[in-house]
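thought: fold this chain, then report.
action: predict
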Amino acid sequence: MLSAAGVGAGVLVAASLPPFGWWPLAMVGAAVLVGVLRERPWRRRVLIGLAAGLGMFGPGLWWILDFSGPGYVAATVVEAAIVALATVAVPPGRGRLLAFPGALVLAGAVAGHWPFGGVPLAGIPLGQAAGPLAPAARLGGHLLLTAMVGVAGASLAALAEWARDRRRRARPETAVGALAALAAVVGVAIVGAAAAIGTTRGALRVAAVQGGGERGLRAISVDSEIVLVAQMAATAGVHPPVDLVVWPEDVVDVDGRLAGSDEERRVAEVARATGAVLVAGIIEDVGTDRFRNAAVAWAPDGSQVARYDKVRRVPFGEYIPFRSLVDRVADISAVPRDALEGRGPGILRTPVGPLGVMISYEVFFADRARAAVRAGGQLLLVPTNASSFTTSQVPTQELAAARLRALETGRTVVQAAPTGFTAVVDPRGRVVARSDLGPPAVIEREVTRRGGQTLATRLGDGPATGAAALALVIGAARYLRSKET
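observation:
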């Protein structure tokens, strides 16, 4: 019964995620989870947490089944285990309601860094990107949103417990405290909405181009020439004058080096024809078993002016950890080569100003957006490729992540994908334009270049994780004191 309640709590959180997007259910799920943890010994708390994690990540990571059944099971169990560790850290008695939000935050922080550098998909913040709490990300980033969901859930659980115990003369201060905590959550969201988002540094006319094509195909089964031709054909629909043209990830696939290649010449011609800076995702072979995934900028005269190589690679998608070992137990033929890891912040210094870049998977990592903004990025670009996914689950979560990055940094985000979603997100996290999945599309908009930093980009994740750890310590101390009295 307890495990069923845990699964139910996790499923409620999963329902808050895109493509469903029922954001209030995350708070309801958190309330169910903290409620069922009441007065449970640590072994029960582990089982409840594991059940909740399975309920959350089972649906949230469903897209992995398109690639590997065993991989889906392994990823779901690992992420669920992180939730189980969080729940066992929550004391069962007094202090539980204070410690619970801290435990959720620390679980989110761990999932963002481990394993294999982190797998932050299906996390609580993505479900809040379209909700009223989202502006708080400008103050404390995605981890603050997790904390707010935890506080709201603990408050709802406290009110439910007070109502249930009222006939037994429950203390009114319990209800008062819970209502005050809910008011604080609302207040933080209001302050976030009113917080500064930097200063305007000018405007750009931007065209994000989607070449279109069939979805659900693996990279190794797609003809790179067809992709490039489709991208060039779609770009013919751009209406000059424009300042910047953004192409998706890996639409230019080169045998060997980009410099001096036929592909380089053809892209340079497109830049000259549009009279704009053109940023395109390129793949370069490095020997027979390595490749580079980069975003390259061409000036309006067709010359290359900047390059950024992707830092956050997709585990089991762009490289295979422990390849020789995994090859003995699984079919890894779909990933025959490993991507080389880039270095440094994602920044392209171009004739239209410094442009921050997060290539595809990197948009799920707040530290990549922070690094780009701290390096001077005035606009954030997300060249991506979600064409290998058969459903809308990953594209919708990716767009939610782009909205969070826009809120956290106070920057416009321009995303381009070969089969969608191609989109423009304004500095307040609003999607002002979005393509459909599949067909070719061109999105043209005037966007602002912005300078300065938000509180979230200045402080990073340190304050949220520190406060979360402190909440756990204080919650544990209150529990231990209650046992002594």
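thought: worth noting. The chain has a mean pLDDT of 94.
final: tokens above.
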